[in-house]
Structure formats: C-alpha cells, structure tokens
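pinging the channel bc i need a second pair of eyes. not urgent but kinda urgent?? the chain im working w is below, pasted from the shared doc
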Amino acid sequence: MKILVVDDDEHILRLYKEELEEEGYEVTLARTGAQGLELFEKTDPDLVTLDILIPDMDGITLLRRMKDLKPRVPVIMSTAYDYRDDFAVWASEAYIVKSADLTELKSAIKKLLAKNAEA
C-alpha cells in the first residue's frame, strides 16, 4: 500500500516515513502543495496524510484538488492545530492532531485502507 505524506516539517516527514515503512507501507514525501499534487497524480497513492499549513497552497485547497482528481482516495488531515470546527476539513476521511505518538494515525490508516478495500 502506498501512502503520500504532505508536510513542510522535516521532522514529521522523517518520523512518518520511518514509522509507516516499519508497518510495511511504501511512503512518498512531499514538502509543498505543488509537489504533493504532482506526486498524488504520479504515484497514485492508496492514502494521503496532509498537513493543513503548507507552503504555497493551504491543505484545504490541496484536499479539494485531490478529491476532484481521485475522490475515492482517503485523505487524513494532519495538523498541529485544531481545525475540527472548520467545515472544510470535513471533506477528509479523518482528522488527526500531530503527535510524536503515531498510534492514532496508524489506526486511522489501517481502518481507512480496510474500508477502501471493501468498497
């Protein structure tokens, strides 16, 4: 299973890549919205984790573009800030507040990939 991680924080990218590869996923990293969109089209990921605050394009705009292109690909919004009251993030399948403990993220990934496999 391929996961695209879009985040501008180098530490988060490294942490997500190491942890998710240990779980057996193929992980691709993007540091900007434009790079994320390009890799989304090129690598055809099974799931995306997407930061809301990224350079050059906010995550909500990128989420909409990804959903326009491939509506069935699950997207997990991942941010250090709580945007749950912003209705725009509701277009994503899950919302995770960043943490060094990736238990919640890993659980959401497994659940969404399993649900998508059934569909």
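so DSSP finds four helices and five strands in the chain. and The two ends are 16 Å apart (CA to CA). — does that match what u expected or am i reading it wrong
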